[in-house]
Amino acid sequence: MAKTSPRLKARLRRKQHIRKHISGTAERPRMVVFRSSKHIYAQIINDEQGVTIAAVSSLTPEIKSKAGDLENKKAMAKEVGRIIAQKAKENGINTIAFDRGGYLYHGRIKALADAAREVGLDF
Fold first, then answer.
1. Which of 9, 39, 103, 104 is at a distance of 20 to 30 A from 16, taking alpha carbons?
2. 98 close to 7: Cβ distance less than 8 angstroms
3. pLDDT more than 90, % of the chain
4. Which whole number is the average pLDDT over 12-35?
5. Which sign does the torsion angle of CA 117, 122, 97, 49 carry?
6. Neighbours of 101 (CB within 10 A)
7. Domains and CATH numbers, the chain
8. Taking all residues of the chain, what is their mean pLDDT, rounded to a whole number?
């Protein structure tokens, strides 16, 4: 039986606390961020209908093709934030609720959020 690291337990506890207060609606969907050691993922979700409106990750072909040009993981996170914001705009979404998934608002999470704000998402 695998042990869960204290770091992961703390993040999951923070995530549960955040999810008690944040929920995506049709007018203001929730943008969820997941960060692994190598990649970063972002989704825009309408929780009322249980529908994913848009999803982008560092593994999507449009970003993976630019991976050689991007110098580090933070630059990749910026690109993910820029593209997820563009997809949201295409779907008529201007405001979102940002769900950082229990991660600290720092580093790659902050880079993704700032890039999405630059494109015009409001949160």
1. 39
2. no
3. 89
4. 94
5. negative
6. 18
7. 26-119 (3.30.420.100)
8. 94
Between CA 84 and CA 96 the distance in angstroms is: 12
User: What's the token pair of residue 61?
Assistant: 């072909």
pLDDT in the model for residue 46: 96
Token readout for 93 is: 């979404």
What does the chain look like in DSSP terms, one character per residue? -PPPPHHHHHHHHHHHHHHHH----SSS-EEEEEE-SS-EEEEEEETTTTEEEEEEETTSHHHHTTTTT--SHHHHHHHHHHHHHHHHHHTT--B-EEE-TT--SSTHHHHHHHHHHHHT-B-
> Distance from first CA to last CA of the chain, Å, rounded?
41
Its pTM stands at 0.90
User: What's the rounded Cα separation, in Å, for the pair 60 and 45?
Assistant: 18
pLDDT at site 66: 83
